[in-house]
Amino acid sequence: MRMFLEIIKCNQYGDSGGNILALYLSAQNIHPTIFLISFIPLTKQPVKHSPVPACWTVKYVLLIAMILFSVLSTYARFVPARDTIVTSTRQQAIEFLNQVKELAPSAAWPNIEPGLFLQNLRASIEHPVTIYPGNGTNFCGYGALTYLFLLDDPLGFAKLLLQLYREGAAFFGETHFTPSDAIKKAAGLLRFKGVLDIRPAEQLWFLCLADHYKGYLNFFNRRYKPDDEDKFWASVNYSKFNRMLRKLLRYKVKAKGADLIRPRVGDRFAYISEKMKTGTVVLYINNRIVHKKNHVTIKLGFPTHFIVAEKISLENNLITLVYWDYGSRTQLQLSPAFFKRVLYGITYCSKKGTDE
């Protein structure tokens, strides 16, 4: 009861009693429901020889109920999420992989040789810039997501892929990956995709992402068949990409733009430059226009590609952009007018607590 008197005293100085009690319960690892049950005897009869008058019993119960109502409304804000993924370092991931001396063949992935899988996983951790979605595939969005994943939480990535390989399924935060049998048979057998052909860990991961996350572009092709990595089955629209970021990474994600509507942010160069100071920026662009070889040919005006912006500058009315995509960094120069034409989405990823 002394604790309640202290809470009431705190209220006199402008503090929230519910917030104070919520902090106390969180620190003691006590759930509010258990806390309430412990006071149920007060509702039956006064305690004998209690210095508190019997008529006060109902008042105490009402007071407890009012405070608990406040606690229940604030409790979730003070208790850390139990499935939050802690950001890790590359060195932690390397040390974790060093403990994996030998990887046994997986019954879930019959076409992936364990030695090559572990070698590919280690290379991705040590050199994330080399992540490659493959020639002719629709894995571009998954590649950009993986690049950010490896920069932000390489240890979480290593643990997730090892669990997927060993068990054929895995939990990561709130996401439960349960790849289909068709995916398990296809991983390790993709061919004519460039260097992706000899990277079984990346094949497994990209196929799992495409199998798990769905958007409107995947509506008519939801079950994997051979060569579907090149078709709408693997496509990533803008909202799906941002949803994957929010589900898998510990980022606050703010998106401007859409699949068919360009972002309304005024000066695009100024907006992107400002956001890059405090976070990571992913651009959703019409890659067919950027890399077209025949400048007379008319290209369709819709976005097709995700790139991770790393540097941007403006000089003599010419924007210089350095970005990551397809296993390397690229430098591109273009006018502000052309930049506006090809840019359809700006995704800003920042850590919790970062000023926006």
Describe the structure in your own words:
The protein is of the alpha+beta class and 356 residues long. Helices cover 42% and strands 15% of the residues. The protein is built from 14 helices and eight strands. It has helices spanning 2-12, 17-28, 32-37, 56-78, 90-98, 114-126, 140-152, 154-167, 181-186, 200-212, 238-248, 268-276, 287-290, 336-342; strands spanning 170-172, 175-177, 252-257, 280-285, 305-315, 318-325, 328-334, 343-350. It has a six-stranded antiparallel β-sheet, with helices on both faces. The chain has a two-stranded antiparallel ribbon with strand order 1-2. A hairpin with a 2-residue loop joins strand 6 and strand 7 (328-334). Helix 1 crosses helix 2 and helix 2 (17-28) crosses helix 4 (56-78). The radius of gyration is 27 Å and the shape is globular.
Pick out its properties.
356 residues, alpha+beta, 6-stranded antiparallel β-sheet, 8 strands, globular, disordered N terminus
Task: Chart the SSEs and their pairings.
Blueprint: H1 2-12, H2 17-28, H3 32-37, H4 56-78, H5 90-98, H6 114-126, H7 140-152, H8 154-167, E1 170-172, E2 175-177, H9 181-186, H10 200-212, H11 238-248, E3 252-257, H12 268-276, E4 280-285, H13 287-290, E5 305-315, E6 318-325, E7 328-334, H14 336-342, E8 343-350
Antiparallel strand pairs: 1-2, 3-8, 4-5, 4-8, 5-6, 6-7
Helix pairs in contact: 1-2, 2-4, 5-6, 5-8, 7-11
